[in-house]
């Protein structure tokens, strides 16, 4: 069950804007959701009435572990950062919430999640070895479906091709190096991408 998609719009607005944790847990749909997902180690934490996002490094590890080296697939630090940008943008457009908490910044070679850059910079331009990482992150069914869709669409491109794509998109083009690309900017841009493809 995806909390965002299964709640009626007025309930969703309450969750996002008005409720604190005690009120939130009393809502029957959310109470049901919490009961069923208590064993899911990776789903959202409720804090101050907000749904908290995943950790960007955990999402990055999920991407790396999905790399199918035996079939010629590879991922570098540069490509990984671009895939994170697309996953974050489409998550914001589809669900209205960020996939991960960490900010995305406009850097010379495109959008970057700085903590992910730091985590994987030891690889420099080399491929990241998926055998060095474990994917323990479990997404909701809806999120996994979105993840798979975005991964399949954008993983087919090289790191340089992804960089060139991002350089032609508003969220990067409209910023100076080092600027944070806001969630609102990402959501608004990726909503146009969904509408264009409908």
Which keywords apply here?
198 residues; mainly alpha; 3-stranded antiparallel sheet; two-stranded antiparallel ribbon; 7% strand; globular
Can you walk through the features of this model?
Strand 3 (104-107) and strand 4 form a beta hairpin. Helix 6 crosses helix 8. The longest helix has 19 residues, at 77-95. The protein has a 3-stranded antiparallel beta sheet. Strands 1-2 form a two-stranded antiparallel ribbon. Helices cover 54% and strands 7% of the residues. The protein starts with a helix and ends with a helix. It folds into 2 domains: 3-51, no CATH class; 56-197, no CATH class. The chain has 198 residues and is mainly α. The relative contact order is 0.16. It has helices spanning 3-6, 9-17, 21-26, 28-36, 56-66, 77-95, 114-120, 141-154, 159-167, 170-173, 183-197; strands at residues 46-47, 50-51, 104-107, 110-112, 180-181.
Brief summary of the model shown:
The chain is about 55% helix and about 5% strand. It is mainly alpha-helical and about 200 residues long.
């Amino acid at each position: 069950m995806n909390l965002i998609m299964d709640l009626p719009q007025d309930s969703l607005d309450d969750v996002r804007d008005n409720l604190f944790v005690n009120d939130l847990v009393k809502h029957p749909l959310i109470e049901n959701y919490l009961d069923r997902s208590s064993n899911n180690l990776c789903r959202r934490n409720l804090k101050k009435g907000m749904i908290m996002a995943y950790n960007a490094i955990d999402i990055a590890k999920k991407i790396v572990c999905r790399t199918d080296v035996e079939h010629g697939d590879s991922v570098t630090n540069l490509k990984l950062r671009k895939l994170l940008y697309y996953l974050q943008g489409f998550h914001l457009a589809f669900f209205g919430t960020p996939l991960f908490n960490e900010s995305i910044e406009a850097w010379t070679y495109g959008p970057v999640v700085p903590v992910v850059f730091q985590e994987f910079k030891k690889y420099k331009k080399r491929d990241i070895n998926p055998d060095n990482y474990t994917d323990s992150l479990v997404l909701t069914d809806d999120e996994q479906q979105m993840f798979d869709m975005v991964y399949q669409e954008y993983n087919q491109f090289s790191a340089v091709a992804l960089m060139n794509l991002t350089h032609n998109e508003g969220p990067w083009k409209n910023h100076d190096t080092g600027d944070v690309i806001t969630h609102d900017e990402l959501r608004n841009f990726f909503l146009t991408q969904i509408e264009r493809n409908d």
